[in-house]
Design goal:
The protein has one domain (2-42). Helix content is 49%, strand content 22%. It is built from 1 helix and 2 strands; from the N terminus they run αββ. The mean pLDDT is 75.
């Protein structure tokens, strides 16, 4: 089963590596996460 998923994993890793700079992930705003009827603010680490 490992070999069946390795192609997809490699594709996703390559796409993330290729477009990470364009997406500017580090400068994205903080997100709000709703869990069990309350909202938690996710801070950058």
């Amino acid at each position: 089963m490992l070999d069946e998923w390795s192609g997809l994993a490699n594709l996703l890793a390559n796409l993330i590596e290729k477009y990470a700079a364009d997406l500017d992930i580090e400068d994205m705003p903080n997100t709000l996460i709703k869990t069990e009827n309350k909202v938690e603010k996710r801070e950058k680490e």
